[in-house]
Specification:
This protein folds into two domains: about 15-140 and about 180-195, MM3350-like (Structural Genomics Hypothetical 15.5 Kd Protein In mrcA-pckA Intergenic Region, Chain A, Roll), CATH 3.10.290; about 145-180, no CATH class. The chain is about 25% helix and about 25% strand. It has helices spanning about 40-50, 75-80, 90-95, 145-160, 165-175, 185-195, and strands spanning about 15-20, 30-35, 60-65, 65-70, 85, 100-105, 110-120, 130-135. The two termini are about 15 Å apart.
């Protein structure tokens, strides 16, 4: 994840957002709060942290049919013309009302689609350091597991010790992987050292 820091501006509003992976039941979701002045690039860093992704793949935000992403050197010219650089746009510039829904797509191969809802916009709490994760459930799928279908297959195999792929996939995913694990304290420890703007 990229560390970004802007000149300190007074924090005047905070956005409470809820993100959930699309197409997975039971839901994998997080609720978190970020400064409204945060860039979409900074928001990407926070999403990567709260969800448990490793920022190893491309991503994009879609808001009101506009596409925002990180620019990269060899981007196809036609694609580049359709995209807006997420480093240049702040959250409060694209979202200014409750119930706004954003889409966030991570890893264009596995195509992890996330729905991102604005739950609250309000003044900051002086006792809270932002960004902060507030709640959530279940662990993020492992990177490169094949999207929603691959993840469903992985869970099926992991739950059946007699399956012929059980040992192989258990080794691949890591023997400590627990799809039900959500560690709020660990996420907030990482967010405390993550400097985003």
């Amino acid at each position: 994840m990229n560390a970004r820091r802007s000149k300190e501006e007074p924090l005047t509003e905070v956005y409470e957002l809820e993100i959930a992976l699309f197409g997975i039941a039971p839901r994998i979701w997080r609720r978190f709060a970020v400064p409204g002045r945060m860039t979409l690039a900074g928001l990407n860093d926070v999403i990567q942290c709260v969800m448990g992704w490793t920022d190893s793949h491309l991503h994009e935000f879609i808001v009101d049919e506009r596409h925002y992403t990180a620019y990269f050197l060899n981007m196809d010219r036609e694609l580049a013309e359709a995209m807006i650089d997420e480093e240049t746009v702040r959250l409060h510039e694209v979202v200014n009302r409750l119930e706004t829904r954003l889409r966030y797509i991570y890893d264009f191969g596995d195509s992890w689609q996330h729905e991102l809802d604005v739950k609250r916009i309000g003044p900051p709490d002086s006792t809270v350091r932002y960004p902060t994760c507030l709640a959530g459930e279940r662990a993020c799928p492992p990177e490169d597991c094949g999207g929603v279908g691959g993840y469903a297959h992985l869970l099926e195999v992991l739950s059946d010790p007699s399956h012929d792929q059980h040992e192989e996939l258990l080794e691949w995913v890591g023997r400590q992987y627990d799809p039900e694990l959500f560690d709020l304290r660990a996420i907030n420890r990482i967010l405390r050292v993550l400097q985003v703007s």
